[in-house]
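ok trying again, last paste got cut off:
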Amino acid sequence: MTNEQLVRQYYDGDDAALEKLYHKNIGLIRGIAKQTAAEFNCLTADSHHPNQFSAYTKTILDDLCGEGALELLTRMQSREYDESRAALTTYLYPHLKGHMTRWLEQNIGCMALSKDEMTAVRQAQRLYHAAWKETGEIAEELDISENRVSRYVRYNTHFLGVHDLVPEGYDGDPYERLMPGMLSVSAEQTVYRKVCIELLRELFDTLPKKDRDILGKTCGVFGYSEATLKEIGTYHMMKESAVEKAKNRAVEKLREAYPGSRLQVWRTVHRMLRRPVPPAGEDSELRRDFPQYVRALTEVYAILEEAVASGERYLGENESSNTCEK
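nice, full thing came through this time. structure:
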């Protein structure tokens, strides 16, 4: 008898079908338990019997299987499953996996959270432990459910991090402020990279929405949380191979947009300033002083650009005043 037939029997009032359904899916529960435990490095072999799990791992797996069984029964009793939409195992997998992951996070001190969710955890714990606010007040302030706040507060983590040691208005690297003189690159190189990222973001924003989502999640950049090809494919209803091809196409579009972009101009000017190419000829004085001339021209260009911007603002103000007079 299939899972779906047992579900129909249970929905029709046969409580014994629920027990049969559980026994039929014990293998699924244990498989997900092993996968989840492996992600948290909890699968260890016995020192005397390498082909067997250690006592610690067996305890973890037993606990995870118990949590998985409880989640399976909870899902079935909620009667939310619709066999016309998906197979039972497809429906159960994310629920069992998520429940086991949360159990490990709360009981062994490790968490597999995205950057955004970890930020929410820190905010919730700071408001709870430092500001002495109730979970309901925190839920209203963070615009999340009270159950989620309760879960965040129970996480075995430290709510005070390195970002709490710098002033609130400081938008630089906290490690740079806490460890001056110990940076791996110079300040000039740091600025150069920051500007490159800002100008690359301009090219990134010209991509179609789907390309931005796939490339952003693949690389975990520009506000997108990093995700696996399988997770991205599930979201866009694509195969993993198709996601990889879409990512490569998005990268190729960036390469095509690069020539003539502000990013190319910035990199070219920076390269010229660091390693100027002297003009051909026998004028040794010109060849010796050429780097200084390049820097002077760059400064003049910046001054002229600022003057042009000021002139445009001045013309705009005059046009506005003339319009008012008329």
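cool. Residues 128 and 134 are 7 Å apart (CA to CA). The mean pLDDT is 77.
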